[in-house]
């Protein structure tokens, strides 16, 4: 049975992603240097988990895997400090080991330094050995210990580089999401400010005051959106949780979509919507994208769009639908349109194809599902299933 230390070690090893991979050139260079400094023909970097010893780079033989109980390094790697053994046959820790008895090899001289992560977790050794009795000078011992630390430096650099690569991908997606989702409240903000300006010029104080209040609300939603999305990105895409009033959220969304609604003449009917557990900003972005798509694609087909937003209670959750009377989405494209930068056949409609991929990401982060069907109105029906709590 694995101990807590074994589990911690296994997790630390997994972060480095070196077990089962081809030898890393930088690590091979370090074992060659270790063998040369110590004046032996064999050196190896061993990674030791709760079951096996994995030789991830070696000189003098081909790296392989052996059982942990057969490993010489497994006897000492969890203890801090450098180990130097002149003749393993005379050391109680090693004399019966198969690498010493001739069953696997005939090791006599053995020296190793533990590989310890920055978090203090021992994960293996850098070791040198020979079939002749030998020893190390104090200077060579220090050099071997230094090379062991450099092995960890190389592993850490590889790990950080991979994480930066993932972060850059997430950052690119996040930047696209933010710029896309800010477009509607920004348009609303500009429109309300222009309306307020018209009210001032016409001497219509109530119109100017109302428009400025709506502009202030749109600006507040933009600030909230950026702040909450930054928090969302920092915690790796995990939404915050609270009870969200979808009726209120849709009201805010329709205010942000005021400009395209008025420009298209869209008629939008909203049924009674529930309160659900989730992240208010993320769910607002979800509904904003679904409604904006319905308006945009239906208007492109000609005529004033008709759109319905409904909720249907399920066992343990809710099914939300946004139906339109636009051109619809062909059955063979209904899964593909949720991919990043996918827009189906509507190439003549402005947009980058970010919205629906963002919607899927949000819904899945909330433990739900999203899809597309044909609508009874004649167009598309975007549906979302969310847990009630």
UniProtKB/TrEMBL annotation:
SUPFAM superfamilies: ATPase domain of HSP90 chaperone/DNA topoisomerase II/histidine kinase, GAF domain-like, Homodimeric domain of signal transducing histidine kinase. Keywords: Kinase, Phosphoprotein, Transferase, Two-component regulatory system. It catalyses: ATP + protein L-histidine = ADP + protein N-phospho-L-histidine. Residues 177-389 form the Histidine kinase domain. It comes from the Bacteria. Pfam families: GAF_2, HATPase_c, HisKA. It is found in: Cell membrane. Its EC number is 2.7.13.3. This is Sensor-like histidine kinase SenX3. It comes from Agrococcus citreus. The lineage of its organism: Bacteria, Bacillati, Actinomycetota, Actinomycetes, Micrococcales.
